[in-house]
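Late entry, evening session. Most of the bench is empty. Finally got around to the prediction I had been postponing all week. Sequence below, unchanged from the version circulated by S.P.
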Amino acid sequence: MNGEEKKAFCEDKADKKNAFKAGKADNRPDKSRKGGQSGKSEKNGKSRDRKALNPQKGSDVSKFLKAEAVPGNPRSMALEALIKMKMPPMWGAAEGYSNLITDAAIKKAGDALSDLDRGLFVRMVAGVTERRITLDWILSKLSSRPLQKLDEEVLNILRLGIWQLRYSDRIPEHAAVNETVNLAGKYTRGYVNGILRSYLRQKDEIVLPAGNGAADMSVRYSTDRLLVAEYIRTFGPNKTEKILEASFAAPGLTLRTNTLKITREELVSVLTEEGFECELTANSDKGIKIKSGSGIPSALKEGLCFVQDEASQLVCLART
């Protein structure tokens, strides 16, 4: 075989090899998942294409997600929202603030999202965001894999699952586990299921750090350690703990009386007749705190009052 024939033979062999590789790539089975959470080709149990976790500057946000959230599925929507929040603006996630992302998702879902599921979606996104440091500490006790080696999708699925099991008293444990596992891909579903069920077995043994140092308070109150350290330096550990506790207290409903239509005393009578327990605000002469009761007061619908906390009322009164 002369030199030219040898060269042609090598080129032909290379062409056949490349064609074979291309054919294998084209014939790979689709790893799509139920519920709209489609996956990329997964090899040796790895959950996703790493390129999707390291998007290039200027890329479209949709390329970083395995699939769009399923309209009407609050957990699927929450997962997508949490992943979008993680993306820097340079990757195309300009709407990276949680309130903008949740509002956009609700509008996009439209009538497919019921009122109950809308509330669950918002609570899950807000809850995981507020408790992320604590959730990650719990997961680090359950996972044999370092959390930094998990991709964003799997990590956020686990966060959603632990949040439902630990912080939500409205979701049955079996429903929280099953629905969360359904978000995972074929090769990560067993891992997610194992972590969540391990938590259920060990939940009474998982006790958050009780110390008054910055590291322990950071985990306990899910607040950045450096910020906690600054609080301790400024206010001392006891007052810092009270501040951090108050940050998780559920805000009450405070109303401002529309004095163009009704007096504060008359409004209290209207609210009391509807079953609401009321308390007059200490500093604003137009405010009423709702201590207990259910539903939306008819006075709000009729324009007899507005929702406004007492501090905001004082600002408005100071400017009038």
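Two things to note before I forget:
Strands lie at 253-257, 277-280, 287-292, 305-307.
The chain has a mean pLDDT of 81.
Will write this up properly tomorrow.
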